[in-house]
Design goal:
single chain, Protein tyrosine serine phosphatase, five-stranded mixed sheet, Prot-tyrosine_phosphatase-like, Protein-Tyrosine Phosphatase, Chain A, Tyr_Pase_AS, Tyr/Ser_Pase_IphP-type, phosphoprotein phosphatase activity, 13 helices, about 250 residues
Length: about 250
């Protein structure tokens, strides 16, 4: 079925250490409010999505509630509930129009250091191994909170830096249409400067993800230390994740 969901893609097939990611298990994208029946059928029947993980805030989820079908597990995990200033929601983009790049860099640092990000990502990653099933994880745009989750998964599984950043930056192609529509919808509520800032906020930049990994290095020294001390993942976690989500090639 050829069905469009904003910024949607599966992680299956990406090359990682000793193989590639299994198909049919992990999918990422934007919020899934007001889905059509064809879109629901695509997620429910074609992909057999059994769990939806929502990284948005409570306010975002209330304003644009996910379309949920019978039997699917819906799991809200607000990874930025501790954030004092963020540019990842629509309101955050508008409110921080003047310095959106600096706000985004600060947000990516908070996705390393804040208690809510550490606890939220810990919960998400733990459930991937404790209860593996086809999972769709998302936030508002599917680019920042979701992008970090995907990047950490890929790095844990041994993907190259190129693979990690290519997946992250793919958002800018996959959100072009949705970004233009959103700016058009909000145009009468924003100044020209705010519209420009919104356009900038709706795309990802290589420097944002690089800043996330730089913050990991500054705070923890090694990525493995971040997994253990920041995310509180057990020493054998990565091996478990690889055994479940990687098809080995020899």
């Amino acid at each position: 079925m050829d069905v469009e969901i904003t910024n949607f893609r599966g992680l299956g097939g990406y090359p990682v250490a000793n193989g590639k990611m299994k198909n049919g298990l992990l999918y990422r994208g934007g919020q899934i409010d007001n889905l059509s029946s064809d879109q629901v059928t695509f997620l429910e029947d074609d992909l057999n999505i059994a769990r939806v993980v929502d990284f948005r805030s409570l306010d975002e989820a209330k304003q644009f509630p996910d379309t949920i079908w019978p039997g699917v597990i819906y799991q809200p995990i607000d990874v930025l509930v501790d954030a004092k200033k963020s540019g990842v929601s629509i309101q955050g983009m508008i409110s921080n129009a003047g310095d959106i790049s600096q706000v985004m860099l600060a947000t990516y640092a908070q996705l390393v250091t804040s208690d809510s990000a550490q606890k939220g990502y810990h919960q998400f990653f733990e459930e991937l191994v404790e209860d593996p099933k086809p999972t769709y994880f998302h936030c508002f745009a599917g680019k920042d909170r979701t992008g970090i989750a995907a990047a950490v998964i890929l790095k844990m599984l041994g993907a190259s830096e190129k693979t990690i950043f290519d997946d992250y930056l793919l958002t800018n192609q996959l959100r072009k249409k949705a970004n233009a529509q959103l700016i058009n919808q909000l145009a009468d509520k924003m100044t020209a400067a705010q519209q420009h800032a919104m356009a900038k906020a709706l795309v990802v930049d290589r420097s944002y993800l690089a800043h996330f990994f730089d913050t990991v290095k500054r705070e923890y020294g090694q990525f493995e230390t971040y997994l253990r001390e920041g995310l509180q993942l057990e020493p054998g976690y990565v091996d478990q994740l690889r055994s479940l989500y990687v098809t080995e090639s020899f």
